[in-house]
């Protein structure tokens, strides 16, 4: 076990629950640390069900193309915890990460606090000690009581599409979940709102106007769409004709559009050339990413494709299925899905958008995850939904089974935890 893993294991034992949405514990620890949340660079705070990380990736690419530096905080990580924290654009070094974790552990002195809370406190402590022009801050879950919601005056807030997810913690309707997401809105901070279902938009709009904030809303105040292989963005100040983003799928045009809207609405020092450059350079691993080489890719035939995506809820898999349908129109290929899921998700809900698209499903128990669905259970649920499905023992055995379908488009999906294990096993972890 590495030193980092040993520290994280100790921190995991400080609270009996992995998730306990509250702000008292993080506020207490931040107070003991000297209130680092008050010494951060200008913060852009991002909530939503899906698309948060992609939108942050676009914003980082735009800012860096403009010569600006950005701290970044996202979760979860894929392979190494370091991926959660970027300091002025670069992943935190293991030495610096360990120092920060051990410092907050010492200051906390064994008091009850969740894993996400104490590690977020370590991130804030790092962000407050290292210079950057901006901090791009992703909400962990919800918004109102999320650990990151301790920044009193963010430069701006963004709410990505709201859909059903984490209902046990956030509520079982779009309106209830939107209420939680809207909790990041702050008086005096402009807000950009991605395209929403009517029920969610009504809640978010009402919350914003109660704070004196006029939200800048996709589909009303701005729009972004694909046209002739380009991304077209339009708002009241004019139209931008831009290159398509390197991230795959129609949903990425929407995500990029939200990031561009934030650039303009928050008055960031980013011009059209920097936006175009950022769209060409943006990287966000395991979001419909091609796996082009490595030992896992080698298990498939030369005529096959291997794709990796961390989609794990119905909203995410709807976007994923639409992207794959577009791919299939451009180059038809039999689709083989390798699926592993956590037991907080219903396989039938995740699979429904793929109806009529998949040749067969190969299911996995995510290795080392005690809260993962068993491969046999996922396969049985898939068969109930009308799919051809069978359980496999490992990622390698699933890929060997997929190789029996010639010239297939093979997608590994269902969980970011599974995606991380694939990247690790393939020797291609994120930068």
Automatic annotation (TrEMBL):
<dbReference type="Pfam" id="PF02875">
    <property type="entry name" value="Mur_ligase_C"/>
</dbReference>
<comment type="pathway">
    <text>Cofactor biosynthesis; tetrahydrofolylpolyglutamate biosynthesis.</text>
</comment>
<keyword id="KW-0067">ATP-binding</keyword>
<dbReference type="InterPro" id="IPR036615">
    <property type="entry name" value="Mur_ligase_C_dom_sf"/>
</dbReference>
<dbReference type="InterPro" id="IPR013221">
    <property type="entry name" value="Mur_ligase_cen"/>
</dbReference>
<feature type="domain" description="Mur ligase C-terminal">
    <location>
        <begin position="306"/>
        <end position="415"/>
    </location>
</feature>
<feature type="domain" description="Mur ligase central">
    <location>
        <begin position="46"/>
        <end position="263"/>
    </location>
</feature>
<keyword id="KW-0460">Magnesium</keyword>
<comment type="pathway">
    <text>Cofactor biosynthesis; tetrahydrofolate biosynthesis; 7,8-dihydrofolate from 2-amino-4-hydroxy-6-hydroxymethyl-7,8-dihydropteridine diphosphate and 4-aminobenzoate: step 2/2.</text>
</comment>
<keyword id="KW-0289">Folate biosynthesis</keyword>
<comment type="similarity">
    <text>Belongs to the folylpolyglutamate synthase family.</text>
</comment>
<dbReference type="InterPro" id="IPR001645">
    <property type="entry name" value="Folylpolyglutamate_synth"/>
</dbReference>
<dbReference type="InterPro" id="IPR018109">
    <property type="entry name" value="Folylpolyglutamate_synth_CS"/>
</dbReference>
<protein>
    <recommendedName>
        <fullName>Dihydrofolate synthase/folylpolyglutamate synthase</fullName>
        <ecNumber>6.3.2.12</ecNumber>
        <ecNumber>6.3.2.17</ecNumber>
    </recommendedName>
</protein>
<keyword id="KW-0479">Metal-binding</keyword>
<dbReference type="InterPro" id="IPR036565">
    <property type="entry name" value="Mur-like_cat_sf"/>
</dbReference>
<comment type="function">
    <text>Functions in two distinct reactions of the de novo folate biosynthetic pathway. Catalyzes the addition of a glutamate residue to dihydropteroate (7,8-dihydropteroate or H2Pte) to form dihydrofolate (7,8-dihydrofolate monoglutamate or H2Pte-Glu). Also catalyzes successive additions of L-glutamate to tetrahydrofolate or 10-formyltetrahydrofolate or 5,10-methylenetetrahydrofolate, leading to folylpolyglutamate derivatives.</text>
</comment>
<keyword id="KW-0547">Nucleotide-binding</keyword>
<dbReference type="InterPro" id="IPR004101">
    <property type="entry name" value="Mur_ligase_C"/>
</dbReference>
<dbReference type="Pfam" id="PF08245">
    <property type="entry name" value="Mur_ligase_M"/>
</dbReference>
<keyword id="KW-0436">Ligase</keyword>
């Amino acid at each position: 076990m590495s030193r980092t893993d040993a520290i994280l294991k100790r921190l995991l034992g400080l609270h009996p629950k992995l998730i306990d949405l509250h702000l008292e514990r993080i506020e207490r620890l931040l107070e003991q640390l000297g209130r680092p949340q008050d010494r951060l660079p200008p913060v852009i705070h991002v909530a939503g069900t899906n698309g948060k990380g992609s939108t942050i990736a676009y914003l980082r690419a735009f800012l860096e193309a403009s010569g600006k530096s950005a701290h970044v905080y996202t979760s979860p990580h894929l392979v190494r915890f370091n991926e959660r924290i970027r300091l002025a654009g670069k992943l935190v070094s293991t030495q610096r990460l360990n120092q920060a974790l051990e410092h907050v552990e010492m200051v906390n002195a064994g008091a009850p606090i969740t894993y996400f809370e104490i590690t977020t406190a370590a991130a804030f402590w790092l962000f407050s000690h290292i210079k950057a022009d901006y901090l791009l801050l992703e909400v962990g879950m919800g918004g109102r009581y999320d650990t990151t919601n301790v920044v009193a005056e963010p430069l701006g807030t963004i709410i990505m599409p709201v859909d059903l997810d984490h209902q046990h913690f956030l509520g079982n309707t779009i309106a209830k979940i939107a209420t939680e997401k809207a909790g990041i809105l702050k008086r005096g901070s402009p807000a950009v709102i991605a395209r929403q279902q009517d029920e969610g938009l009504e809640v978010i709009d009402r919350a914003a106007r109660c704070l004196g904030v006029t939200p800048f809303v996709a589909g009303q105040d701005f729009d972004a769409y694909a046209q002739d292989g380009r991304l077209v963005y339009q708002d009241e100040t004019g139209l931008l004709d831009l290159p398509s983003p390197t991230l795959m799928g129609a949903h990425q045009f929407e995500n990029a559009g939200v990031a561009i809207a934030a650039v303009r609405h928050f008055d960031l020092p980013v011009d059209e050339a920097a936006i175009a450059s950022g769209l060409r350079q943006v990287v966000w691993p395991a979001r419909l990413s091609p796996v082009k080489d490595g030992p896992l890719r080698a298990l498939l035939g030369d005529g096959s494709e291997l794709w990796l995506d961390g989609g794990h809820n119905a909203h995410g898999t709807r976007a994923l299925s639409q992207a794959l349908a577009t791919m299939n129109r451009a180059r038809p290929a039999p689709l083989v899905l390798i699926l592993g899921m956590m037991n907080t998700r219903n396989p039938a809900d995740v699979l429904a958008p793929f109806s009529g698209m998949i040749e067969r499903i190969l299911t996995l128990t995510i290795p080392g995850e005690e809260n993962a669905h068993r491969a046999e259970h996922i396969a049985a649920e898939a068969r109930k939904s009308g799919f051809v499905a069978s359980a496999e023992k490992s990622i390698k055995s699933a890929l060997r089974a997929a190789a029996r379908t010639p010239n297939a488009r093979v997608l590994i999906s269902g969980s970011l935890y599974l995606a991380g294990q694939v990247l690790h096993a393939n020797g291609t972890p994120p930068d």
